[in-house]
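anyone seen this seq b4? input:
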Amino acid sequence: MGIIICIGGSVDIWKENVMEKLEAGEIEYESVEEFLTSLKKEFEEGEEKSVKAVELRKLEQGVKTMEEFIQEFKRAARGSGYEERPLIEEFKRGMNREIRRKLMEVENPPAFIEQWYRRATALDRNWRKSRREEERLRRKKEMEGRAPKQEQQQILP
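predicted toks r here
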């Protein structure tokens, strides 16, 4: 086996650890392929977590329904390494500000991610329903304002 030169951070540390184990006889690679498989396994998992974490950090609800946002969030969260509190913090960061504020102001705020999903979905649905109702009432009021007013006939005695 030839000399492997790795430059930078965790790769250098990994190289030192492997070299120590090789010299101590703790590990042995039967072939270059076995070594490369080990190397790939070590760094692909970390890279995947980094990519997923970045994807999670970029995710925002925007105009999406909460259901759509949650599905995207769950996909990005898988393999990100985020669990429990950090996962909840990323979810809160990505949801629309008004929904987040309402959830955080309740007497018993959600404690677990599944509770955040359920309660955020309910609030989002209510908020959208309220906006549709307001829009319907606004249009109705506009239509009433445009309709010609019928002159009231005065009935004489």
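The CA atoms of residues 140 and 146 lie 10 Å apart. The helical segments are 9-24, 32-58, 66-77, 84-94, 97-105, 113-146. kinda curious what u guys think
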